[in-house]
């Protein structure tokens, strides 16, 4: 098995990856050169970026731009990253959620609202890091298999960078997510099958074609690091403190594992005080392989065939699932799952209490938060953050049957009164 796409340059210019020094294997610790590799040549374990960080201060970070590049010293990107055209994602709002907190009986609750990123999901963060790596490695095509949001982010980032994009999606994807890609690229490819089929195809293409950077395949270690910025921002926006509890949606599990990595790095660098925190994962019952393994108390994740409205979370064989299990257990969190109906309720609940319109992934997270409270798994006296990872306008169909006009009336005062709205 080939673990790299040899056709992309292996050596990049000096400083191309900032303070990153190697790719290291999560399983055996083996180190390989920074490049388009994603699996350990010794044991096939996943590779992740290792760094040699200099001392970093709050002031240096605060002096940076209001986007993810304020944390560039902690990312595998060059020091002049701001000079390269990119979508400049991040530094999204951390909103106090007092109404939702009251509704659920939680003392202290925040929503990290990543729906306001350039293409309205957290995927802009990971794609910005993958784009930098693709550029530094001399890739000619910027590509991805996607459950929807990733394709939107790749297509937009490639357009800004002036690099050819080809994005692959399952053919049954929500129409708004298809349009949100196709508007940026002429090469949206709808594949007959589910995400796991699309992903398999992408792996084949990455191994065969020259110069293709698949953001979540052959440059995945760089891509994944982008999710750390969610963790950095939450800590910085809380006044350089870690929350006590955080609820994060799980598809491949990458985001959850990287928020944990980010918290650990901040502690290690002395940028926040060391303290215990609990990480909770949120899945849909129609695609809950990690939640199922968590409940069963087992370490192995049995892949499932996704069947849920939460399409952005519909990965039946999650690459980082086992690490999510480890982190949830080690931190005293949990991985919980909810039904499609609960997801729809979650979307409306967040909208009506906080004025935030989330997509099905955020509906899942909100509904899981509620379930964690109801089942006593979450400590309602502790400070809690939930992540809204995407915008509701992309999954309108999920709630269009549930919300709508309360009344349709003629344009007369009498009709208004008769409708009982006064
Ligand atoms: C991709 C995605 C996720 C989950 O990402 P993973 O890192 O694969 O677990 C969550 N929410 C939304 C909206 C997404 O698009
Ligand atoms: Zn290894």
Automatic annotation (TrEMBL):
Domain of life: Bacteria
EC class of the enzyme, as a word: lyase
EC number of the protein: 4.2.3.1
Keyword Lyase in record: yes
Cofactor(s) for this UniProt protein: pyridoxal 5'-phosphate
Protein keywords: Lyase, Pyridoxal phosphate
CDD domains on file: Thr-synth_1 (cd01563)
InterPro entries: Ser/Thr_Dehydratase, Thr_synthase-like, TrpB-like_PALP, TrpB-like_PALP_sf
Coiled-coil annotated residue ranges, if any: none
Tryptophan synthase beta chain-like PALP domain span: 89-390
Gene3D superfamilies, sorted: 3.40.50.1100
Family assignment from sequence similarity: Belongs to the threonine synthase family.
Record's protein name: Threonine synthase
Organism, as annotated: Nocardioides panacihumi
